[in-house]
Amino acid sequence: MAKKSVKTLKVTLVRSAIHKLASHKACVRGLGIRRMHQTVEIMDSPENRGMIDKVSYLLKVEEA
């Protein structure tokens, strides 16, 4: 049986979330990012893509 390869994304916070909308801060926290220049690997899912799209001006996204 072949395993499904789960696509992941590397997401880095490159701009501060200070003085941003509370919903945008919540998206950054929901992605698992706690501080500036922290990189996290997340699954490529529609839910995560939606959060990334909402705060794309704060993030750098790469395919992992």
Give a topology summary.
Elements: E1 8-13, H1 22-30, E2 39-43, H2 46-54, E3 59-63
Antiparallel strand pairs: 1-2, 1-3
How would you describe this protein?
- By secondary structure, this protein is α+β, with helices and mostly antiparallel strands.
- The chain has a single domain (8-63), classed as Ribosomal Protein L30, Chain: A.
- Helices cover 28% and strands 25% of the residues.
- It has helices at residues 22-30, 46-54, and strands at residues 8-13, 39-43, 59-63.
- The radius of gyration is 12 Å and the shape is elongated.
Task: Explain briefly what this protein structure is.
With 64 residues, the protein is an alpha+beta fold. It has a single domain, classed as Ribosomal Protein L30, Chain: A (2-Layer Sandwich), CATH 3.30.1390.20.
What name is given to the CATH topology? Ribosomal Protein L30, Chain: A
User: What's the main sheet like?
Assistant: 3 strands, antiparallel
Give the fraction of residues assigned to helices: 25-40%
CATH class: Alpha Beta
According to DSSP, the number of beta strands is: 3
β-strand percent reads: 25-35%
What is the name of the CATH superfamily?
A: Ribosomal protein L30/L7
